[in-house]
Every structure is written in structure tokens, then in C-alpha cells.
Design brief:
171 residues; alpha/beta; 5-stranded mixed sheet; globular
């Protein structure tokens, strides 16, 4: 599966343009929260850089993250989010930054519980959830992708999902 929106580290692009509109950031937050729950993640460590768009994108992401707890560090360097994440049990970290990219760009970069870049499997799972929420992929494509990621037969995934989710609106 191609990680269509992902650069070398997380989602990158022009701030306030797809896939980094405020609505998209909210949707990324929901996708992250959904996958976090399945991975036993209980908290988000959140930070952002000084770009003009960063705090707004972080707020939209946090809105999508929902009721799961968050430790908001605010304006910090990227390594601070990685460091704090590694020291909080059951946490993932998120940094809103485009590092060396032009000022009009931005991005979201994730860290696992060790403070390291999230795995490709976690990125794929979040991308599938984001695409399903955005209506970018069909219900069948979502089931197929989850089956592929989990190594479970599509029929088993469909049975589990169809009992909880309507075919026309995944989230």
C-alpha cells in the first residue's frame, strides 16, 4: 500500500491545503485516535513549531483526537516531543512542523512510545482510517486494507466491522 500523503516523516504539504486543511487535521486526529485505541495508546503528547499555521493545525488535530488524554507541550522543538513521549507510558507523540521546508508548508509527524518514528504499519492504518473518514476509499477497500495490515481474512474483518459501522459512513 502506498503512503500517498506521507513524506519521509509524516504528512507534509502546504498549510491549509489538502491534506492539511483544518478539516483534514481534525480528520487526522480522529484517524490517529481510532488506531491509538486499537494499539493500547492512552495519551497524545503534542507540540508545534513557530510557523503561523502550526497552532491552528494542532488545535484542529486535538479536536479530532477527542476525549483521549493529551499532554500539550505547545511551542517546542521536535526532539522535545520525542523525549516526552518516550517517558510517558502508553503515549504517542505528534509534532506539527515541516522542519526545513518553506514557511508556507507544514506537516504532522508521529512518534511511538519509544520516541521514534511511527512504524509504516501504524502510518498505513491511520491513512486507511483517514481516507475512509474522508470518503476517499470505499467500504470494501477499507476492509481489504485492514485485512492486509492485520493478516486476517477479509471475511473476518468485514464481519467485525459491519457489525459496528454502516457501509455508507465508516465513522
Amino acid at each position: 500500500m502506498t503512503l500517498r500523503y506521507f513524506g519521509t516523516d509524516g504528512v507534509r504539504g502546504r498549510a491549509f491545503e489538502a491534506p492539511l486543511t483544518l478539516e483534514d487535521a481534525d480528520r487526522w486526529g480522529r484517524a490517529w485516535a481510532h488506531v491509538a485505541r486499537t494499539r493500547g495508546i492512552r495519551e497524545l503528547v503534542l507540540g508545534w513549531d513557530p510557523r503561523l499555521s502550526s497552532e491552528d493545525l494542532a488545535a484542529a488535530f486535538l479536536h479530532g483526537w477527542g476525549e483521549l488524554p493529551a499532554c500539550v507541550l505547545g511551542l517546542v522543538p521536535t526532539p522535545a516531543v520525542a523525549w516526552a513521549t518516550a517517558r510517558r507510558e502508553g503515549a504517542w507523540g505528534l509534532m506539527v512542523s515541516a522542519s526545513h521546508n518553506p514557511p508556507g508548508d507544514n506537516g504532522i509527524k508521529g512518534f511511538d512510545g519509544r520516541g521514534e518514528k511511527l512504524s509504516e504499519a501504524d502510518e498505513q492504518a491511520r491513512l486507511l482510517n483517514w481516507q475512509a473518514d474522508a470518503g476517499v476509499i470505499s467500504h470494501d477497500a477499507f476492509i481489504s486494507g485492514i485485512a492486509q495490515l492485520s493478516g486476517v481474512a477479509e471475511s473476518e474483518v468485514a464481519e467485525l466491522i459491519n457489525g459496528h459501522v454502516r457501509n455508507d459512513a465508516l465513522f
